[in-house]
Design goal:
Blueprint (H helix, E strand, L loop, with lengths): L1 H29 L5 H33 L6 H27 L8 H28 L9
Subcellular location: Membrane
Keywords: Cell adhesion, Membrane, Transmembrane, Transmembrane helix
GO cellular component, one term: membrane
Length: 146
């Protein structure tokens, strides 16, 4: 009888350990240190992919406006805004290359990286505002049909 009780207690302990083991594993995985360099590189890569997508959209809009020619009502403002957007996007792309190249774990680079991150964020905001105006002025493709 005593051996059965000890066996049951042993089973209960094993069950408790089995239930707690996955939770402890989850805690360990969640508390793993964040590799800031890896995080920053992923963030910059995602931002640069969005920048490329917007660059392609602006190039397409520029082509559409140029196809319409100077007879388009907002020809000069749209060409100017699209050009500003393209220049800013190329600038942000170059900044992101520098940000990714530098090691975030090197504390001597923190100030420079922080400045570059702030400048790129401000430029991205300006790009968004410029593209809102581009959309507001409207870029229509010329009618090729009757």
């Amino acid at each position: 009888m005593a051996s059965e009780t000890m066996e049951m207690n042993g089973d209960a302990d094993r069950l408790r350990e089995d239930r707690e083991a996955p939770q402890q594993g989850r805690r360990r995985r969640m508390s793993a240190p964040l590799n800031m360099n890896h995080y920053a590189n992923k963030k910059s890569a995602a931002e640069s992919m969005l920048d490329v997508a917007l660059l392609m959209a602006n190039a397409s809009q520029l082509k559409a406006v140029m196809e319409q020619g100077p007879s388009f009502t907002f020809y000069t403002p749209i060409i100017t805004l699209i050009s500003i957007s393209l220049i800013l996007q190329i600038t942000v792309g170059v900044l992101l290359i520098f940000i990714v190249k530098w090691n975030l774990n090197d504390e001597s680079k923190h100030y420079q990286l922080n400045v570059l991150e702030n400048v790129s964020t401000a430029l991205v905001f300006i790009i968004v505002v410029v593209n809102i105006f581009i959309t507001a002025f409207g870029v229509q493709r010329p009618n090729t049909g009757a």
